[in-house]
Amino acid sequence: METGLICSLTGEKPSFEETCPSFDLDERMEAELNDSAAIEIKDLSNEKLREYQLEQNLPLGIFGGTLAGFIGACLWALITVATGWQIGYMALAIGAGVGFSIRILGKGVDPIFGISGAIIAVFSCIVGNFLSVIAVLSQMEGLDFFETLLYFDYSYTFDLLLETGQFMDIVFYFIAGYEGYKFAFRKL
Q1: Nearest in space to 133 (alpha carbons), one of 154, 113, 116
Q2: Are 100 and 142 in contact (CB under 8 A)?
Q3: What's the Cα-to-Cα distance from 128 to each of 18, 139, 150, 182, rounded to whole Å?
Q4: Whether the Cβ atoms of residue 158 and residue 107 lie closer than 8 Å to each other
Q5: CA–CA separation, 179 vs 93, rounded Å?
Q6: Which one of 65, 141, 148, 183 counts the least CB within 10 Å of its CB?
Q7: pLDDT tens digit sequence for 52-110
């Protein structure tokens, strides 16, 4: 504590200003430090990969992702009613929320976690879009939201989404699916 930082090679206080003449660069370590990406699964030992796989919990991850997607879809409808605008950016929040929920609860490293995240995110965006349209219809008709939801003829769901949808909705769904996939994996 009295000396301060000491060199691990000489055991003494550094005696240089800018560079150390006895410093040897470890290229492997430099590559790891410069690589901003996390460790790849292929770089893990079989024991470590097996250890991570034993910690996975797909049902809990899917439950968490579905819950996050449902909450996001409901928030999308509430924001649409409150602002009067259907905001496509909500799909991005849903995708991230679903992916992170699956990551935190599922702790997955297998591809099924990403695939589940993408499917749940896209489906949640479609539900959010649908609930937004139902909310607007209920306001236009002067009905209660749940009454409109109850009496809606669901055979027209696909037609309703096609009629009210835009090309940008598909772009946002794609990005949400990508986020649901990408963020669903455990950071290694």
Answers
A1: 154
A2: no
A3: 58, 17, 16, 21
A4: no
A5: 9
A6: 141
A7: 788 899 999 999 999 999 999 999 888 988 887 877 788 999 999 999 999 999 998 88
